[in-house]
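Q: Entry one of two.
A:
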Amino acid sequence: MKRFRFQLQSVATLRALREFRARESLALAIRVCEQAELALAEARGRRELLEELIRSGRAFTLRAAEHVTFLAALRQAAGDEAAAAQAVAQAHAVRDTRLNEYYEAARNVKVLANLESRARLAHRIAVDRAEQAALDERASVAAARAHRNLS
């Protein structure tokens, strides 16, 4: 019997490549999310520090010009924090899209792997049947010879 050859091997190779690329883009999106979350944490920390400075400055005498400068810096820090939060939301949206793409690609690879395993099983059954038929034929020929020799 001839060797097993999966007819959809080229499709399986392409789908595996797509799955690899989807996994790589997912990893990149996860890294971008982590960086955006770190930037958000830094912006939040700067804003909280400025708030604390303003609160502690109120306990002492703070000149109006210094207070205005601190408030302007606080507004800037709050804006930076809002922009960082928006960047985090966008990064999470991209990550979720990449995750869905990866799941779809992995599902396609799994479908072809199941098809290949079924095809291998069918091939193995056909080979076993052919071998059994050949063994049965040899046994029949041997039995016929033995019967002819006895008669």
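Q: Entry two of two.
A:
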Amino acid sequence: MITDLSIVVLGGTDLDDSVLSRAQGGRALDEGLDDALRAAHPTLTSVEIRRVDPRPVGELAVDLPAFVAQLDGADVVLRSVQPDLIGIETGAAFAAEFRDAMAAVIAAVKDTGARMFLLNGATYDPADTASCYVGGETTPLAIHRLALELIDLSMLDGISVIDADRLVAETGGASHVRGCLEYSPELCATIRDEIVFVLEDYGYFDDRPVLVQQGRRER
């Protein structure tokens, strides 16, 4: 059982809003992930939430030693795909580059002993009215591409993916998705609580070893 938990948040803004309280820099929640964890598990004596520079994953992969230095002491690393959707060229090549860079980052995180959890993005955007992609891909389509890559990475490397699309379907996209990767406070709280559930499922708060993230790549 862990009594001191250190969590590194790598962005993006959708994850920040779902993990950080307003007092910590989030824009949606009065109670952040640390508050929810303490409420659910009173035996926790310390929950550290540490936010680091949310650079695109390709930049992190270029200098892994510098990236790893930012994770010092972390038990959990949280990341969403949002930073990888800013100023990018979409398409199959973009998705392949993301996959390779993310695989390198995941391996580096696992080498430190931390577990990595990735939040995909809601593919519903109320402003997206595209009916074809002859003129270029939209951001929701790029999110679809990255979501597929995350599924493959979860099988290859054993990491867990927080499925924003499923949570949107359960809460209602029309009411709770305000724009591309912009969520209502209620949906942010749902994502926060899902992260709590996944950490519980891994055994962080039980008298058993924390689940090891191992996929086909390591077998």
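A: Comment on entry two: The chain has one domain: 4-204. The CA atoms of residues 140 and 183 lie 14 Å apart.
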